[in-house]
Amino acid sequence: MSLPKTQRTIEAIWRIESPKLIAKLTGMVRDVGLAEDLAQDALVVALEKWPHAGIPDNPGAWLMTTAKRRAIDLLRRTKIRDQKYVEIAKNADLYTEEDIDHVLDGEIGDDLLRLIFMTCHPVLSQDARVALTLRLLCGLTTEEIARSFLVAESTIAQRIVRAKRTLKEKEIPFEVPLGEELHVRLSTVLEVIYLMFNEGYSATSGEHWIRPLLCQEALRLGRVLAEIAPNEPEVHGLVALMEIQFSRFKTRVNSKGEPILLMDQNRAQWDQLLIRRGLAALERSRKSGRSLGPYSLQAAISACHAQALTPEDTDWPRIAALYEALSIVMPSPIVELNRAVAISMAFGPDIGIQIVDVLNADPSLKKYHLLPSVRGDLLVKLGRYDEARAEFERAASLTQNERERSLLLNRAMECEKGKST
């Protein structure tokens, strides 16, 4: 195995395993910043050893063992909380290669949920909570998070540093809260879990468009949360949204890993079990008697797609109406962009592009690659191929995902064919 290929493999393993490492280490040292440092130490050891010794059969267990040994060594060396160290050393056996099933079981998952609630504590600002959790649970870089927030990278970096310092200074507990405190933190936790799911569903950067394990973990955490907070309609709304979205997962890429757009997917291969589960969760949300929140509304939009046997059967007027409702409860330029797409599908591209042209002047969308991508698609439908090609090329220059860039460049080249026909 060549060194560059080994390094790429290690990076992929790290993206998958780092949230579990950080969650488990936070439970041990009760300091999320220190836990991240210890996890990074384990990565450094892997980068030193694996290119020469080979990648272990169970790399997650290897990383966990290395990180836990370093954590226990640190606790012993600095004599921090001697009683806690004795308890940890007595009760927490080190993981071995044979213990991989235990490393990946629900215990780790519970730690992940506790980590989410810890980093979503109200002592932090809303933006800081989301940024920190995306950094720790999704393994996103500050640049990737900044693109998601549509703000400067330095702003995100400062938020993350301050957030970790605040959690340490305030000694925020590593636990899932109960009662009213759980309710207070719930909206941010839901936001973080969905952002985690979205990063798996459409990766911000890298060689792959999708990250299945990240989606699966977000969905699992959502289901656990639905058990903890069964009377919260938006919890069921989020679960419904993720279930239905994930039902399309296998059809989102072809055998080469290239993206397949929604309207081109083979609907016969959509997972009907996940769709049924999603529709049932949406119904539980509706039965609360409250107005639909943002996740339930998005789930209702996804349900429209899931229930259409063919792209032509899609109820676009209803989707446009749902986006209108969503823009009221969760106003944002990205929601407005999606509403423009729905309106164009329901009533024609000439109407949709009027909305998009207004959004073109929004400074927060200046580096958002989907804006020129949507505009390019509408221009193709209007027969304005030269303009469309320029928009697709601009979108390709803005995305950090290699698969998506190739897709957009291919669409730009297709504009030449369209112009000649």
Automatic annotation (TrEMBL):
**Residue ranges occupied by any RNA polymerase sigma-70 region domain in the UniProt entry:** 18-79
| UniProt domain DUF6596: residue ranges | 185-285
Pfam annotation, one family: Sigma70_r4_2
Q: Which InterPro entries match?
A: DUF6596, RNA_pol_sigma-70_dom, RNA_pol_sigma70_r2, RNA_pol_sigma70_r4_t2, RNA_pol_sigma_r2, RNA_pol_sigma_r3/r4-like, WH-like_DNA-bd_sf
Locate the RNA polymerase sigma factor 70 region 4 type domain: which residues?
115-167
**Would you indicate the residue range of the signal peptide?**
none
Query: What protein name applies here?
Result: RNA polymerase sigma factor
